[in-house]
Specification:
The protein is an alpha+beta fold. It has helices at 3-20, 31-34, 57-69, 76-84, 144-168, 173-179, 192-206, 214-222, 227-243, 304-307, 319-324, 329-341, 366-372, 399-418, and strands at 23-30, 42-45, 89-92, 106-107, 111-117, 123-127, 171-172, 252-258, 261-266, 274-277, 282-285, 299-300, 343-346, 361-364, 377-383, 389-396. It has a four-stranded antiparallel sheet with strand order 6-5-1-7. A four-stranded antiparallel sheet has the order 10-9-8-12. A three-stranded mixed sheet has the order 3-2-4, with helices on one face. Helix 3 packs across helix 4 (76-84) and helix 5 (144-168) packs across helix 7 (192-206). It is globular, with a radius of gyration of 20 Å. The two termini are 12 Å apart.
Length: 420
Amino acid sequence: MTIEERVNEANRQVLEILTKGRPRWVDVRPALEVIPGMTPETILMPGPSIETERITPPLRTSICGAAIHEGLAKTKEEAWKLVEEGKIMVASSQNYSCGNAACMVTSASMPVIVVEDSVYGGKGFAPIHPGPNPKCLRWGLYDEEVEADLSWFRSDYGPALSQAVRASGGVDLITILSKTAGMGDENHNRQPAASMCLALQLIPYLLEIDHPQKNKIIKDFAANDRFFLHVMMAGVESLTAKCKGIELSTVMVGMGGNGEEFGVQMAGTANRWYTTKAPKIKGTFLKPSYKESDLVGYLGDSCVTEVYGLGGMSAIAGPAYMRLTGSNYAEARSRTEKARAVSLGEHTFAPVPWEDMAGFPVGVDARKVVGYQILPISHGGSALRSGGQGGAGAAELPMECFKEALRGIYAQAKSCDSQG
């Protein structure tokens, strides 16, 4: 076979996993119990790994908060010293099949959503979405109030969700996406329909749990119209877990930012990151007094949902998000058309009624991105340098990432040839 034929066959295998896999939410467990390679001293961070001295202030706060939460340190200063000394290992979460949205990190005792692909057997993980309270570790904020919430998630909320999910027999994510097709979700920055559908499925089982705070648990769960995002992140990670390592594939299977750098991962080179300077998410500020200089660069793993074709890739499915972030319907169509032009396939289970029942594109091919000079556009929330959310909007994925990725695949092809 020629190199091109081998690449095409590898991409076919990856696309098959992405389109035929069946992610299912099966449990909620402490990270240490379920994430392979997790240790009591490990803290997983969003985006590519980065030198300690370059970690942005909000992400640094989240890391220190997690260390205090785990009992590894008593103060932020003590926690950061342990990071600098290498006694706390900070690692890229997507390299562990885990996704951390915005400034969120995952530490050993934190409850994580566990999703398993029932077709190919991959598993993915993500912490539980904290809900509408803007003061949370997810946005790089930590104090006694945030610690109280983290502790409640660990002792009460996580175990209650675990009990309900297991009693339900698991939640099929494709069914959720199919039922809510045409209801305005693009399922990265907007997912009220999917979250409500999920709540309808799970609340009957939450009603049956034996817990003194059952009413609070149900109220918090039902009131969170973004809950599904973190379930979907874990779902995508369950699929990409089996895509990574399919040699010579040029399909994107990971993407994310750490505030300084943005990176992508290709199936062919598994957990290797191809990085460049992180773009800033532009759109709408939450306060008119905010300025672009107040923001860090693209930060978070929630865009891994776009590997699956959601968010900016399926912008046409969520026109309300476009309006919210200062854009319009024509731009929504343009974003999806760009994604379709550089993708190898299409999901058919969630057709968009106002897009002539077309599905959303999946399987971004780095060859097409570079060859056609078409940059996919990602949706996202922007983090303030001082902590907290600054706004929401979109950013073009940097071309340099895809060029570097193709160089990496080319080097892999040469290595394969030299080995016979």
